[in-house]
Amino acid sequence: MNSIDSLKERLLSEDMKKASDIEQEARKKADEILEQANIKANQIVEEVKQKAEKDGKDRKERMIARAELESRNIILQAKQEAIDLILNEVINKINNMSKNEYSILINKMIINNVQTGEEEIVLSIRDKDRVSINLDEINKTLVAGGKRGLLRINPEYADIPSGFILRKSGLEINCTFEALIRGLRDELEAEVASVLF
């Protein structure tokens, strides 16, 4: 059991390193986007200010206000692009994992998303040859955690981009990476924005 724990720790450490690398790369790209947006925004503000001085005080104030609004919009758009870049990069990195890494990730996600331990797992058709589910080990882990160890795999596949669906009594939990990231987007936007900006 120690070797399994050791393997889990090593894999978790590797995943954390990969996540850190993704974050650093995304920060660099986000900084470049934001720098370009700030330069463009400053140019717009300057051009509008110069024109406004020639056209009079009232017009000047209206144009400055409009330029500042446009500047804020450009910066907001750059932030959105940076966040999109980060989230897309995460999905990209997941999609480019080795079969073994991806299988380990999917197995962990199943354990983390199971509610009762009696659900049915419907895998993505795109993952048909990519993922290996260790159902016996997952069920043992669920039982050890106080849940029922009666998970089963549906022999049919879902037409989803990645991940899986957990199904029980007509209810479904969408565990595609896209859905999970979309679900966390609001939470991540504030966190990523505070880190990057």
Uncertain residue segments: none
User: What is the H-and-E element order?
Assistant: HHHEHEEEH
Major sheet size, sense and barrel closure: 4 strands, mixed
The tally of beta strands, per DSSP, is 4
Indicate the proportion of strand residues.
5-15%
Strand order, sheet with most strands: 2-1-3-4
What share of the residues lie within helices? over 70%
Number of domains: 2
Q: Quote the distance from N terminus to C terminus.
A: 44 Å
Backbone shape: elongated
| Rg from alpha-carbon coordinates | 24 Å
Q: Mean of residue pLDDT?
A: 81
Overall SS class? alpha+beta
Helix segment count?
A: 5
Keywords: ATP synthesis, Coiled coil, Hydrogen ion transport, Ion transport, Transport
Protein name: V-type proton ATPase subunit E
Family: Belongs to the V-ATPase E subunit family.
GO molecular function, one term: proton-transporting ATPase activity, rotational mechanism
Characterise this structure.
- One of its GO terms (biological process) is proton motive force-driven plasma membrane ATP synthesis.
- Produces ATP from ADP in the presence of a proton gradient across the membrane.
- GO terms for molecular function: ATP binding; proton-transporting ATP synthase activity, rotational mechanism; proton-transporting ATPase activity, rotational mechanism.
- One of its GO terms (cellular component) is proton-transporting two-sector ATPase complex, catalytic domain.
- The chain is an alpha+beta fold and 197 residues long.
- The chain has 2 domains: 95 residues, no CATH class; 85 residues, 2-Layer Sandwich (hypothetical protein PF0899 fold).
- It is built from 5 helices and 4 strands.
- It has a 4-stranded mixed sheet.
- The mean pLDDT is 81.
